[in-house]
Amino acid sequence: MIKVGIVGGTGYTGVELLRLLAMHPHVEVTAITSRSEAGVRVSDMYPNLRGHYDTLAFSEPDAKQLGRLDAVFFATPHGVAHALASELLDQGTRVIDLSADFRLRDADEWAQWYGQPHGAPALLGEAVYGLPEMHREQIKTARLVAVPGCYPTAVQLGYLPLLEAGLVDAGRLIADCKSGVTGAGRGAKVGSLLAEASESMKAYGASGHRHLPEIRQGLTDIQAGAVSLTFVPHLTPMIRGIHATLYSTLIEAPGDLQTLFERRYAGEPCVDVMPPGSHPETRSVKGTNTCRIAVHRPENSDTVVVLSVIDNLVKGASGQAVQNLNLMFGYDEATGLSAPAVMP
Amino acid sequence: MIKVGIVGGTGYTGVELLRLLAMHPHVEVTAITSRSEAGVRVSDMYPNLRGHYDTLAFSEPDAKQLGRLDAVFFATPHGVAHALASELLDQGTRVIDLSADFRLRDADEWAQWYGQPHGAPALLGEAVYGLPEMHREQIKTARLVAVPGCYPTAVQLGYLPLLEAGLVDAGRLIADCKSGVTGAGRGAKVGSLLAEASESMKAYGASGHRHLPEIRQGLTDIQAGAVSLTFVPHLTPMIRGIHATLYSTLIEAPGDLQTLFERRYAGEPCVDVMPPGSHPETRSVKGTNTCRIAVHRPENSDTVVVLSVIDNLVKGASGQAVQNLNLMFGYDEATGLSAPAVMP
Amino acid sequence: MIKVGIVGGTGYTGVELLRLLAMHPHVEVTAITSRSEAGVRVSDMYPNLRGHYDTLAFSEPDAKQLGRLDAVFFATPHGVAHALASELLDQGTRVIDLSADFRLRDADEWAQWYGQPHGAPALLGEAVYGLPEMHREQIKTARLVAVPGCYPTAVQLGYLPLLEAGLVDAGRLIADCKSGVTGAGRGAKVGSLLAEASESMKAYGASGHRHLPEIRQGLTDIQAGAVSLTFVPHLTPMIRGIHATLYSTLIEAPGDLQTLFERRYAGEPCVDVMPPGSHPETRSVKGTNTCRIAVHRPENSDTVVVLSVIDNLVKGASGQAVQNLNLMFGYDEATGLSAPAVMP
Amino acid sequence: MIKVGIVGGTGYTGVELLRLLAMHPHVEVTAITSRSEAGVRVSDMYPNLRGHYDTLAFSEPDAKQLGRLDAVFFATPHGVAHALASELLDQGTRVIDLSADFRLRDADEWAQWYGQPHGAPALLGEAVYGLPEMHREQIKTARLVAVPGCYPTAVQLGYLPLLEAGLVDAGRLIADCKSGVTGAGRGAKVGSLLAEASESMKAYGASGHRHLPEIRQGLTDIQAGAVSLTFVPHLTPMIRGIHATLYSTLIEAPGDLQTLFERRYAGEPCVDVMPPGSHPETRSVKGTNTCRIAVHRPENSDTVVVLSVIDNLVKGASGQAVQNLNLMFGYDEATGLSAPAVMP
Fold this sequence. Notes:
4 copies of one chain form a homotetramer. Chain A has helices spanning about 10-20, 40-45, 65, 80-90, 105-115, 130-140, 150-165, 195, 210-225, 255-265, 315-330, and strands at about 1-5, 25-35, 60, 70-75, 95, 130, 145, 175-180, 200-205, 230-235, 240-250, 270-275, 290-295, 305-310. Chain A is of the alpha/beta class. Chain A folds into 2 domains: about 1-125, 3-Layer(aba) Sandwich (Rossmann fold); about 150-310, 2-Layer Sandwich (Dihydrodipicolinate Reductase, domain 2), CATH 3.30.360. In chain A, the strands form 2 sheets. Chain A has a 7-stranded parallel sheet, sandwiched between helices. The first copy, chain A, has a 7-stranded mixed sheet with strand order 9-10-8-11-14-13-12. In chain A, helix 1 links the parallel strand 1 (about 1-5) and strand 2 (about 25-35). In chain A, helix 7 runs parallel beside helix 9. The first copy, chain A, is globular, with a radius of gyration of 20 Å. Chain A starts with a strand and ends in a 16-residue tail after the last helix. Chains in contact: A-B, A-C, A-D, B-C, B-D, C-D. At the A-D interface, strand 8, strand 9, strand 10, strand 11 and strand 14 of A face strand 8, strand 9, strand 10, strand 11 and strand 14 of D. Chains A, B, C, D: It is found in: Cytoplasm. Chains A, B, C, D: Keywords: Amino-acid biosynthesis, Arginine biosynthesis, Cytoplasm, NADP, Oxidoreductase.
């Protein structure tokens, strides 16, 4: 049994960590911080947690106390983890950061996209990008893990087999992505109201989105070479789920794409390659840490279409964070992550 | 480890049984029947079950095979369980029926509401009404359990403390109930299409609904006397959930209603009395076997308003069925039923 | 052609006025005010208005300018209309107030429910309650009309025939009401997010809601005597629509209730009594100024159930405001209000 | 005033024609046919039409009677219009076909995609493809108009300015399209149930969809040369709306794309080019005959992204049919099509 804390627990990734960890046999959440809600019991704010965390309450963040824990999750807006992570690492606490703070290796690029200087550039060298399907071994021994973003997870897992095999033109990748509204967080924005966002669909950030450099960095690592990506996210009237539709152009005879994907993900506990001809639904992964993938080659042309779905709050955030924790502490990778999706 | 079967597994209560039993440590599902889908793997029909039931397939119902199992769930339309239940009981298999076939004690009343003669009146005497909060002891030794309907569960649990205490006028009860569309089952009806049922609200069956005699029978048992109930169900644009708003009139000074409810349900693993002033949300119980209840007395008048919410497919069907199985086989009552709701 | 203005036009009732008046042949909107959005074109904020109001922009409120118009609508939060209405009336401009500011005749009761002193008690005597089905003649000559609230409209129109006929016990009325989320306005509140309010149902204000005194006052007028009402509103996961389910107890033999309702509303352009056995859907009135009503007497008991549906933003606000304007200026009452609902 | 009929009026495009024509000053619907619902009043089936069509009832199709009308709309499944259209044209009635029966010029290609021989190949030569923005002049004098499909309308209008100007590589077009569920019609299919289709997103027909040859034919006409298109439709949890996200690659310096689009669509009553940087929402066109378009060039690369939204039942079907009728009979093109979208 290890003791963990959550910094910034009032948002959707925070409550999702609590939900998942309630089902984890080896983890106890002993601290959860929130400046605005200090003193409030988590089960008063999230009634689904009644009966699971009846005494746990939000508290002011305290580096000393957090530093006594085995691991601390950051479920904070960008910029918050920089300073505190360093303090915790110094006390021997391992850090799993769900924010964007340690995802980009280049501090300047981070500063450019997030509009402020990077607060802990010295840590960038050791931060491990927490995509287990790419970096499993480094994660096991990492002190500091940067959990990938939701879009980046769905897109990278979809392109991975194709780019590793060098089958497609890395200079012409198109990722058309659709997300549920929890991707925008729990902030009270007019655009996220049910009255505004339901019964409608729209693109956003068509001219540039903060997940773009993260995806590009990840695909470049996979490809071992430069990539060019067009990434258009869309807001979909549903609570959770990301559907990535990924287009690429074959540059050589591909052999059997289905087999390529199945082999690459054989043994992966959190990636499920669907049978040929499938169209994965986001609801089939809702609440779970699974990425479901199908690969198509329409009319046998030179265009490959990969369909990749995840729950943005689980495999795209809190579930992947727990998967990383399992690896870091030697538990079976899927511990606490095995409940099937609720469907319908 | 016991072996169980599911008869009529293609509907929503069937797949929900599979989902819940996938998390149950002591139960193995070894048979699931469907005439129309015989030969199809359940995980091909319900992709959320991929990785959980990769070999289980629908089969033709076979009384001999089912009769070798410890227990069989019926998730069938009304009228189907009558004959087969009898055969299974004769072979020593215990039966948990999620349909309406054994809920009413009076075969004539059943025939009147369901438009056909009752097929197994001889079994009505021993069938136990599977509402654990009322009939826990009988359930433990029952061979045949009739799992309550969804509306009846929400309504009875809401009125129970008031009627047991004799505080309200049993001759003037009003249950205004709202249900998600899965209450109408998985049948392909125009009225259940997203295009027809979303972005709208309507009542139905205002002049009489099949759950009315079941609720009346249950409330009469609780009250130990005649009751008069007006019951109006409504269709709500959501997948799951029942919200029962229950009105009654005080006939004597009630003392503290909050305490009355808390005491009645103290120790009940599947009923959660909310703090004073609460308004339970159906999403807080989605996917769980919990009934959340709040009690109000508006403007300190003689009207009591009870708000009672459940997931119609869990506490209102498959979860309550598992709760009954746990009692029948001596497991902890909430085994396999402890995952928190996914929220948001 | 008359010239009108809208004060506080950024909210949902403001944009709905613009939508409806775009189809009105005799009205030109020449001013719309908003302190926060001054200078912004309405079609930039509401793209559905592109091509309809391409030059109209929000402006700072200016009593002089507004005072030159024929009529001014207030689509403001409570308390705002008190002072400005008086100024406009003095200049001869007629005022149609969609807020709650002039609905209650008793300034003290208003102060109690709205937590501040009434700002224009001198006007309460002449303000006409703008429910045309009750007060048509007074509306025609009114200088100041208080447009009824959404819940009050649906509830009063449903009870009206029963109370006028003296058929039911006015001491035991129960109004169980369900509303879409636009009832909560365009404010950015966490509880109104799609992620929080969809796929769920809950009651709110079960112990007291601001529409209660308004409904009580209206029903008392109809009944010509005291009434006792329990009113429980619920939040439903849809954008628009109110479904009122109204319970009452017969105190004398009712004759044919269907005929009673049909006669009472014969000739009413905005009330539609459905055939016997009907269950009106809120979507059937979406975007329209119609109230659809059905009356039931379950199992021929002494309980009457009336189902009454409106669009909360149209017959419950902006459409009823236009209906009042039509009466005040001598136009046909349904002018500009005749487009059928979009369905599905 | 002209008299029109609708063949196959029970589906969504049929009721939508009725809704739109109720607001048309020059058209009277005097016949609507349905074999299954003959004798039923349209307002009994669609309560939103109460008060608009109180006497019109479905009737058996009768070529003689229909042949006396000025125009007949076909809102039928594919294959039905072939024989009857010919009969009506012979009697001098003009035909506006909303089905796919006359959209493809090549009878063999039609037979291949629809799995049956074409029933009226002799008419293919004179059928005019009813996209007014391309074929306005031919429509005016046409006897037989094939109204474009929903996806084809959104995709063609989005690519039109780019292809006409020869700016992009016609050999590498990617149309990622998202549709509400009414695109699947009013048929009672399990996959279209609210319980199945809400709170989820999925692609379908990724390997080939019936709209593909129609889009290809249209784009080839525009391009005046061969095109290669990848088309992936997605099911979105909303009632109405299509969002087409269109990718293409520049093959020469484009100049100002915004100006290109604005000039091409200047004066078009049913196409609205949004300001630079816009992301059109499907709800902004709900219920209207408008196509809203925005053009982006992410990071100033050689990839152009066009966002094109329509209401699949209006500009994608019944509204475009009325627009064609207006052209054919010399009315202003937007007659009866000017009501703003209901929003929110």
